[in-house]
Design goal:
This protein has 256 residues and is mainly beta. The protein has two domains: 141 residues, Immunoglobulins (Immunoglobulin-like, Sandwich); 102 residues, Immunoglobulin-like, CATH 2.60.40. The protein is 5% helix and 46% strand. It is elongated. This is Molecular chaperone. InterPro entries: Ig-like_fold, PapD-like_sf, Periplasmic_pilus_chap, Pili_assmbl_chaperone_N. It comes from Ramlibacter albus. Keywords: Signal.
Length: 256
């Protein structure tokens, strides 16, 4: 199993440099669609050809939102490897293998990686200098069966002590005025949060969220740690979230 940060920015970076244009940068299957296409065009100004290797990985997330990937055998990509020269365009086709109705959105990553050999000099040794190999990492999403369902669940989770050691929720954690809340995306599609508000007995706290924080995939969890208001007691009573689309979701308490 491999842990890899989402590399969507690589596609944007390459596009901004005028070397490569990828369309689309978020690959989405429509309902009942079995094949989708991704186009990669290489600028005539590119310095050298690329040997692109294509791979589809199953995509899940850890509690911090980091990508966790592993090889997938239910989505095929063609071609698996190809040579691309400046000014050329290549279409990669992704096909669902034995598609079955799913209750939640399935998430994958399409990785296009330049595996070209470093050019050799007259002696046959790799040329000296800086050689940049590009790697494009695109999200691939397969919709669930049925209408969209948005639902969040929350649970209080362990916090971190002053030395970074994890301690259980309760008096030991409260002594350091820290709290941790875990959100579970119990809906059937990914959700991107704009704001999260945690409330307790006589207090509320709006959690700072990174603007570029990744969406929470269906079935994934995300942990948020924050300082408690003075004399709050540490007990969390409720959690409410607002999505980037403006919807307000009231999370239900649960144990997980």
């Amino acid at each position: 199993m491999m842990r890899r940060a989402a590399g969507l920015l690589l596609a944007f970076a390459a596009t901004a440099q005028g070397q490569v244009l990828i369309q689309p940068v978020v690959v989405q299957f429509a309902a009942k669609q079995k094949v989708v296409a991704v186009s990669l065009a290489m600028s005539e100004r590119a310095a050298a050809p690329m040997q692109l290797q294509a791979q589809v990985l199953r995509w899940t997330q850890d509690s911090e939102g980091g990508a966790v990937t592993q090889p997938a055998d239910d989505v095929l990509v063609s071609p698996a490897i190809t040579q691309l020269h400046p000014g050329q365009r290549q279409v990669f086709r992704l096909a669902l293998r034995n598609p079955q109705p799913a209750g939640v959105e399935k998430a994958y990553r399409l990785v296009l990686e330049d595996v070209a050999q470093v050019p050799a000099d007259a002696s046959g040794s790799p040329q000296a200098g800086l050689h940049i190999r590009m790697r494009y990492d695109l999200p691939v999403l397969v919709p669930p069966q049925g209408p969209p369902l948005q639902a969040l669940q929350w649970a209080q989770c362990p916090t971190l002590g002053p030395q970074g050691a994890r301690v259980a929720s309760g008096p030991a954690a409260d002594a350091y005025a820290l709290a941790c809340v875990r959100l579970l995306n119990a809906g059937n599609r990914r959700v991107r949060l704009h704001a999260v508000r945690v409330t307790g007995e006589g207090w509320q706290e709006d959690l700072p969220l990174k603007q570029d924080a990744p969406a929470i995939l269906a079935g994934a969890q995300r942990e948020f740690r924050f300082q408690l208001p003075p004399s709050s007691g540490g007990a969390i009573r409720g959690v409410q979230a607002q999505t980037t689309r403006g919807e307000v979701l009231r999370a239900e308490p649960a144990t997980f």
